[in-house]
Amino acid sequence: MPDIKRIVLTGGPCAGKTTALVRVIEHFNSLGFKVFCVPEVPTLYSLGGWNYLTPNRQLYFEGERAILETQLAFEDHFQRMAEVCTKPVLIVCDRGTMDISAYMKPEEWESITRDAGVDPGSLRERYDAVLHLVSAADGAEQYYTTATNSTRYEKADEEGLRIARELDKKVIKAWSGHPHLRVINNHDDFERKMQRVMREISNVLGLPQRVMEERKYIVELTGPLPETIDSDILQTYLVSEPGTEVRLRRRSWSSGKVVNVHNTKKRTAPGEQIETERQVENALYESLLQQADPYRQSISKLRQSFIWKGQYFELDTYHGALDGLVILETKGIADAEDVNFPPFIRVIKEITGNKEYYNYNLALRK
Predict the structure, then answer these.
(1) For the segment 51-110, what is each residue's pLDDT rounded down to a tens digit?
(2) Cα–Cα distance measured from residue 314 to residue 345, given in angstroms and rounded to the nearest whole number
(3) Please, are residues 95 and 39 in contact by the beta-carbon 8 Å criterion?
(4) Residue 249: helix, strand or coil by DSSP?
(5) DSSP reduced 3-state for 310
(6) Cα 302 vs. chain centroid, distance in angstroms?
(7) CA 327, CA 361: separation in Å to the nearest integer?
(8) Closest-CA residue to 299 (of 249, 264, 242)
């Protein structure tokens, strides 16, 4: 059976997803992959006459249940086709199953997943990666339009922008807990957004990538944070061969969700590396801990993720031996771009590329 990877391209309204899909299909086909694209199921039902804004709550519920069942069926059929291909396969899902929950009340979502015999954990595990493209409504309002999508109901006015931003955050929250959720920022140059999509998919496919430094800063909080997605992280570095970094991470959320990820970074050439990661069950996680690097302590930190003016940030507050250290990391902001620092953050100093503050080195026992 060929190597098969299944990813989700999702995001808020007017995020560039349609353009990204075209680029992905063309680019990875040219690299020798067979690319399948699972169509956006909610759009199929909207074009067929169903409207998620219908006041008929029963009609709404039946439509959402149909969308989930169709999405599962489509993905399973494409998976079977992929299994008989002779080339490596990339299955790209134009939105995924967890997107549906962002548009529903929790009790309704629980009901349709129960009827379908699935749960949020198993739905997230269907995909090797989830790429969320931030809506233009957040930080790139001048590019926000409804003209390119006849089934979009959010208007291009202040209220429409507010609704689009809220949907964006709900979709990210729905996918929180996936070990390879990547949020793709808006950029002054849209091409950079597309390049980040290609890079993240290339990582999933195990293709060598140029080492990129995310912008990092030591900061302090000067005011309350906006709505954030919070998780506790415990990461342990394992004994590895020279030129390779192996990390074992346990990440937990207040909902009780716990995800263990085994991550490996291996240098293949100057300035290039291959990064792979896989989710591991609790039993394997406990077993792998026996390989912990004796020269490094485990790192414990609280991660608070949020979007500010179209840019995605992760705020890490360290505990234990590193107590008091707070690091703000940007995601996918190009070197030439300005960082939209929130007013509740005071930057103490930039540490981008400073190896002293790499987690791998912070873990060294003093």
Answers:
(1) 988 999 999 999 999 999 999 999 999 999 999 999 999 999 999 999 999 988 999 999
(2) 12
(3) no
(4) strand
(5) coil
(6) 18
(7) 15
(8) 249
Neighbours of 206 (CB within 10 A): 13
Q: In 3-state terms, what secondary structure has residue 150?
A: coil
Identify the H or E element spanning 232.
strand 229-238
* Cα atoms found within 13 Å of the Cα of residue 329, Cβ hemisphere only: 18
What b/e readout covers 156-179, taking b as 16+ CB neighbours within 10 angstroms?
A: beeebbebbbbbbbebbebbbbbb
CA 58 to chain centre: 32
Runs of H (alpha helix) within the chain: 17-30, 41-47, 57-82, 106-116, 120-124, 158-175, 190-204, 282-288, 359-362
Quote the CA–CA distance of 152 and 68 in Å, as a whole number.
19
* Residues in contact with 317: Cβ distance below 8 Å, sequence separation at least 6, in sequence order: 301, 302, 304, 325, 326
Whether the predicted model's global pTM rises above the 0.70 cut: yes
